[in-house]
C-alpha cells in the first residue's frame, strides 16, 4: 500500500519497488583494481583516486542525493567510499592515524540539502574505523557560485581564496569528495590544508567527470 502512495524507485536506474537495486549495487562495488588514479586538469599536487566515471548509476545516485534529497542513497555511496578507503589502506597509500576531511561545500547548499552529503558519506564510511577520524574542517566563503557550466579557468577563479579552515587539523589527511571535475576545489583545499601545517596524502572521490 505504501508503494502505491509513495512509489519507490531505484536511485541508480529507476527500477520500481526498491530504493537501490542489486544491479546498481554491483555497479558501485569496488573491484580489486579500484579506485583508479586520475589526472584532473588542475593538479592538486597529491594523488587523486576515483572509484569510477561520473555516469550510469553512479551519476544518477549522486544527483539524486544532492538535488532531490534522496538521503536513503547516502548508505550505498558511503559503502563504495568505505571500500575505496580500505583499498587505499591495503595498498599502503593511507594508514592510521588518519584524518578524513570532506571537501568544502557552500553553506546555503548544505542547508538546502538537509546537511552536507559528502560529510555524511565520509562519517558513514570511516567514522567507525579505529584510527580514522572524520573532521569537517573546510568551508567555502560567501560569493562562491555554482560551478556547473564554468570552464576550468572559471572554476579556478570562482574558488580561489574562498576555501577557509574552520577547524584545526594536523598530521596525515585524506580529502574526500563525491566528484572531481577540473580539480579546482581539490587544488584550493589542498593549499589551505597545507598552509595549516597538515600533510594531505591523497584525494579520494566517488566519481571522476
TrEMBL record:
The keyword Cell inner membrane does not apply. It comes from the Bacteria. One of its GO terms (molecular function) is transferase activity. CDD domains: PRTases_typeI. Keywords: Transferase. Belongs to the ComF/GntX family. This is Phosphoribosyl transferase domain protein. It comes from Mycolicibacterium hassiacum (strain DSM 44199 / CIP 105218 / JCM 12690 / 3849) (Mycobacterium hassiacum).
Amino acid at each position: 500500500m505504501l508503494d502505491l502512495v509513495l512509489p519507490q524507485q531505484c536511485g541508480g536506474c529507476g527500477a520500481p519497488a526498491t530504493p537501490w537495486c542489486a544491479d546498481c549495487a554491483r555497479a558501485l562495488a569496488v573491484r580489486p583494481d579500484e579506485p583508479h588514479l586520475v589526472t584532473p586538469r588542475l593538479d592538486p599536487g597529491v594523488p587523486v583516486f576515483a572509484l569510477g566515471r561520473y555516469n550510469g548509476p553512479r551519476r544518477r545516485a549522486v544527483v539524486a542525493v544532492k538535488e532531490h534529497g534522496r538521503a536513503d542513497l547516502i548508505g550505498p555511496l558511503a559503502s563504495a567510499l568505505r571500500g575505496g578507503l580500505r583499498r587505499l589502506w591495503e595498498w599502503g597509500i593511507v594508514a592510521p592515524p588518519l584524518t578524513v576531511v570532506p571537501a568544502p561545500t557552500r553553506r546555503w547548499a548544505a542547508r538546502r540539502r538537509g546537511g552536507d552529503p559528502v560529510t555524511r558519506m565520509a562519517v558513514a564510511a570511516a567514522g567507525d574505523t579505529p584510527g580514522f577520524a572524520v573532521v569537517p574542517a573546510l568551508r567555502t566563503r560567501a560569493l562562491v557560485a555554482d560551478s556547473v557550466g564554468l570552464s576550468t579557468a572559471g572554476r579556478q577563479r570562482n574558488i580561489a581564496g574562498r576555501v577557509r579552515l574552520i577547524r584545526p587539523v594536523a598530521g596525515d589527511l585524506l580529502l574526500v569528495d563525491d566528484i572531481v571535475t577540473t580539480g579546482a576545489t581539490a587544488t584550493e583545499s589542498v593549499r589551505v590544508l597545507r598552509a595549516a601545517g597538515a600533510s594531505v596524502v591523497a584525494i579520494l572521490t566517488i566519481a571522476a567527470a
